[in-house]
Amino acid sequence: MRTVDALRALETATAAQRGLITSAQAARLDIDRTTLSRLTAAGDLTAAGDLTAVRRGVHALPSAATDPHLEARAAWLAGAPALFADERAGSADTPVLSHDSAARIHGIGDLIPHRHTLTTATRKQTRHADVRYVRRPLADDDVATVDGITVTGAARTVGDLAAARTDGGHLAGAVRDALARSLTNTDALAA
Predict the structure, then answer these.
(1) Residue 183 contacts by C-beta under 8 Å, 6 or more apart in sequence?
(2) Cα angle 117-118-124, degrees, rounded to a multiple of 5
(3) What pLDDT, in 10s, does the model give residues 1-19?
(4) CB 26 within 8 A of CB 60
(5) Which three-class secondary structure state does DSSP give residue 182?
């Protein structure tokens, strides 16, 4: 595929993913690894290349530089690399961001995740030190979509933080923000 055609296909395909594309998604668009490598810059998102490697198997177009959730979105995409963002909502075994990662995406509390936590119904492992998988089935009402990313809902997120023994001050901040922003209610939090 010609470089200009590949870039055009990538721009169209990455609109819902804020400029991010996985190698597996690019292959689905008939963009081979050689073309992907040729388009990838060796530096950061401000480099002269058309794509930048964000993490193994995930590349960013220059438009991704403005995404405030770039790293979390890249980790989420890498969890099911062949699926595009719009295909993930209906898939039961697709990992969703959870715990402090979901709190950050929801904008509740002041937790800063050191690792991206993803919950999945099936066992999943990774070699990435900044990603942790939790195996647990989620009900449909436990999952929400925020800024195009599937995450645990606010009540489930608070519940996960409590189960993970998050300190009281951080947990209280997440509860306060979730209620203040009407993301959940006291009955859901109590359950």
Answers:
(1) 106, 108, 153, 154, 177
(2) 115
(3) 777 888 888 988 888 899 9
(4) no
(5) coil
